[in-house]
């Protein structure tokens, strides 16, 4: 793995734990494993990047429980991805995770060559029998809820949105957010741009500055750097995937949080029980199963009636009375 630009390896071990059959299906795993599962992950960006950080967090939680040992590689180039996958499979890892949006064909070939290894990969496509499961952050329900906040707190009615790439996992969250905004403010306009990178805070910040200078008073921070621009210009921002409200007090007013724990715990339980199969884990990011949430809102920034509205809509989603559309098409500016 020495050709990877930056790599840090974390190895964590834990003692013997037990595991009962009834507990396996639900996760987290605990009781009667002879030894922790051997798990590895491959990331094309730093583990600090918000999307990957949620996978990393969930895996570390499993390490702390003693369910797994965990090795990871970060900043892996697409040209190196297949090789690293093979090395982890050859090393005897029972479960390998990562994001393969730019290396689908190669990753699926590797999975086919190692049918005894379980692969759980971030992907916009279908699972592949027998051992290639897919996940994505289907947190559109919580993105919609933050859109309600954005619409209610915007005075100009102009919302800026800066994303990484217009791929389904980004597009669906943007559309859900926009639906929330327009439900509250039907005449709202949107400025949408993609920076062509998953991690380039300076570029995202410059794109945000341009939107704020053009009249946006609420920014959708799909990428790092956007909230910095909002803070400097004195406008509000909406967080995505991670909670940055403490980092940007009085700037980030609401955040849609992704929780990867249900997906990770299900995969661990399946591997431990010898029942891992090709599945789509998308539904495990939904609100009702704890796959997403909305961060607590500051009443000094968000009016009490808006918070109450969000709670009412959240309850309707959880009860199945309100369904948020999944729209993977590229969102366009309307201003």
How would you sum up this structure, described in words?
This protein is an alpha/beta fold and 335 residues long. The chain has two domains: 17-136 and 260-285, Rossmann fold (3-Layer(aba) Sandwich), CATH 3.40.50; 140-259 and 290-318, Rossmann fold (3-Layer(aba) Sandwich). The protein is 36% helix and 19% strand. Strands 9-8-10-11-12-13 form a six-stranded mixed sheet, with helices on both faces. The protein is globular, with a radius of gyration of 20 Å.
Tell me the CATH architecture of the largest domain: 3-Layer(aba) Sandwich
Number of helices: 10
> Considering the protein shown, what is the CATH homologous superfamily of the largest domain?
Response regulator
Strand order of the largest sheet: 9-8-10-11-12-13
Count structural domains. 2
Backbone shape: globular
Q: In CATH, what is the class of the largest domain?
A: Alpha Beta
Helix content: 25-40%
Distance between the termini: 47 Å
